[in-house]
Amino acid sequence: MGLTADAAVIAVIVVCCLVIGPLALELIFTIADGFGWSIRTSQLGLTLAKYFSKGSDYAEYFVVGSTILMVLIPIYMHVTEYLPFWMATEHKHYAELILFHLLPSLWINSNIFYNFHLTISLGPGTPSKSHSSSRMCKLCRGPKPPRTHHCGTCGHCVLRMDHHCPFTGCCIGERNNQHFFMFVTFGFVATIYATWLSLHPYQYCLAHETAHELDSSPCNDWTHAKPRLLYLSLAALCLMTTFWLFLVILRSRDMTIIEFLSFNSSKRRNQDLLQAHYRQKGILRNHQVLLGPCAFWWRWLLPIRSLHQGIPAYVTEPDL
User: How far, in Å, are 158, 161, 312 from residue 182 at the CA level?
Assistant: First the structure.
């Protein structure tokens, strides 16, 4: 059983490296370009880009499935491990069971799956012939409005492209940006909840460390698992907190990940930013452009499509 688990962990790490590889490689190329080193066009650079791209295409489907499993496994652990432990030590009434376990788990996980589904099903949005632009995509042969980029993985241009997300298997753009942000937000909330769940067994079993107490308490099966689950929850919390704060900062500045990483040329990037003139909007206005007016933000707490479709677009005031 241990060997199978170790093999699964190694497989997931390899696949994630293949997916994250192109991003790390592009960062290295960008830094090298800044120092005047032409690694990107060298034989080594072209070879690495070729193999990383091929591996990423095949690995992406597995990563999407792994994303779903990363949500399902904590639910399984909650039902089979945490819930019986809490009922044996603390929560002996149905009211506490509903308040601390059923409702939070249902609310968090339903929002995660709901926003994950809509991020994929809605798509990022592509330019149509009705979009007027002086730029034309050399690959799509269509209009290329400001902040539009061609995704080599998807094979088409994406309006206000943020990035191509391997964990959803699609691009994040103008159409699904809201749901992707809420998907990450509820993933961040889920790690907080998982850490809180893991903290109670760790503290309880730490106070019952004697052999006699362990044999006669629910800690008997948690002797080795309790620190690992807590550390795993804390590691997930640190990762999700970092990524969520990163997105919040970018959304506050109305900046995409592509613009932050400077994948495109400085001339084209400056052209996009000048045409978008987004830096004049302010932090609150940028978030309202993303999620709608503040008075309607409570609707994002519920996974109900009709509530979200009823959120009016935020109309920015003219700059003076």
Answer: 20, 17, 17
Instruction: State both tokens at 94.
Output: 């149905």
User: Beta strands of the chain (E only): which ranges?
Assistant: 149-151, 156-158, 163-165, 170-172
- Report the alpha-carbon distance of residue 73 to residue 238 in Å, rounded: 19
Contact call for residues 54 and 91 (beta carbons, < 8 A)? no
pLDDT at res. 2: 40
> Can you say how many angstroms the Cα of residue 232 is from the centroid of all Cα atoms in its chain?
18
Alpha-carbon distance values, 219 to 20, 162, 164, 203, 222 (Å): 39, 46, 44, 11, 5
Cross-strand pairs, 151: 156
- CA separation, residue 24 to residues 19, 28, 48, 307 (Å): 10, 6, 11, 39
In percent, the amount of the chain with pLDDT more than 70 equals: 72
- Report CA dihedral (256, 260, 266, 270) to the nearest 10 degrees: 50
Q: What is the pTM of this model?
A: 0.78
- For residues 257 and 147, is the Cβ–Cβ distance under 8 A? no
Q: How far apart are the first and last CA of the chain?
A: 67
Cβ partners under 8 Å of residue 181, min gap 6: 247, 251, 290, 291
The two three-digit tokens of residue 129, written as one number: 């012939």
Dump pLDDT digits (tens) for 255-305: 888 888 764 445 555 555 544 544 546 788 888 888 989 999 999 999 999
Written as one string, the DSSP assignment of 63-86 is HHHHHHHHHHHHHHHIIIIIHHHH
